[in-house]
């Protein structure tokens, strides 16, 4: 039930909002008691300045849609600093204009994000409407191959690099006796093997035939 990715900034927000409306419509208008799906839309801080963001927040709050708007605020929209691009840097507060519940969470803490998301999903399924979640996080590389990453301060990078969420969770699991260092190393090797196999398959596969161009666009019999 992954609705795909969208190249244009903020374009996934109305699609996810529509999915949330469909879930609510099935339950309330069509009488499908099993329809309890909650939509979660992920986007960056740059998208929070786009019109679709505010339009969809208004609609979701008005109709109490089962929706999670998750802003991955990594402080930079490609090369534009978040603080320079918005008059109110605290994105989670922007839902207040629509009466929407908002919360800010440490996006580098897996368990903190899980806790906030679990509560938001429960609120949505209870008919209490959407939640705007701002996860404070950071990207460790440039935005893309076209981004040489020359604008972010070295000190800022070092501060965030030390808070790597994967390493932070690993240290927690080890400290709590939930897993051993050897088990994590074995998991790393297992994942790397899957990645290597996928890359090899892709590189050795033949180019698709032009007749395949329009496949997987519409439903097929």
Distance between the termini: 20 Å
Q: Which structural class do you get from the secondary structure elements?
A: alpha/beta
CATH architecture field of the largest domain: 3-Layer(aba) Sandwich
Number of folding domains?
Answer: 2
Q: How many DSSP H or I helices? A: 7
What would you note in describing this structure?
The protein starts with 11 loop residues before the first helix and ends in a 17-residue tail after the last helix. The chain is built from seven helices and six strands; from the N terminus they run H-E-H-E-E-E-H-E-H-E-H-H-H. With 221 residues, it is α/β, with parallel strands linked by helices. The radius of gyration is 20 Å and the shape is globular. Helix 1 runs parallel beside helix 2. It folds into two domains: 137 residues, Rossmann fold, CATH 3.40.50; 40 residues. The strands form two sheets. The chain has a four-stranded parallel sheet, with helices on both faces.
Label this structure with key terms.
221 residues, alpha/beta, Rossmann fold, 2 domains, 4-stranded parallel β-sheet, two-stranded antiparallel sheet, 7 helices, 6 strands, 42% helix
Task: Give a summary of the structure in a few sentences.
The protein is an alpha/beta fold. 42% of the residues lie in helices and 13% in strands. Helix 4 links the parallel strand 5 and strand 6.
């Amino acid at each position: 039930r992954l609705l795909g990715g969208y190249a244009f900034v903020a374009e996934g927000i109305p699609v996810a909002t529509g999915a949330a409306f469909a879930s609510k419509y099935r339950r309330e208008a069509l009488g499908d008691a099993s329809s309890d799906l909650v939509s979660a839309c992920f986007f960056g801080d740059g998208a929070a300045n786009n019109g679709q963001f505010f339009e969809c927040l208004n609609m979701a709050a008005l109709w109490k849609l089962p929706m999670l708007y998750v802003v991955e605020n990594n402080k930079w929209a490609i090369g534009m600093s978040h603080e320079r691009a918005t008059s109110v840097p605290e994105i989670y507060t922007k839902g207040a204009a629509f009466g929407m519940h908002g919360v800010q969470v440490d996006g580098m803490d897996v368990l903190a994000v899980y806790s906030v998301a679990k509560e938001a999903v429960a609120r949505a399924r209870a008919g209490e409407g959407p939640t705007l979640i701002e996860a404070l996080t950071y990207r460790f590389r440039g935005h893309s191959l076209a981004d040489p990453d020359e604008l972010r301060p070295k000190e800022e990078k070092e501060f965030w690099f030390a808070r790597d969420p994967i390493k932070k969770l690993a240290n927690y699991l080890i400290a709590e006796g939930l897993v051993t260092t050897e088990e994590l190393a074995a998991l790393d090797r297992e994942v790397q093997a899957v990645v290597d196999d996928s890359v090899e398959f892709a590189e050795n596969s033949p180019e698709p035939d032009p007749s395949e161009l329009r496949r997987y666009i519409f439903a097929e019999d």
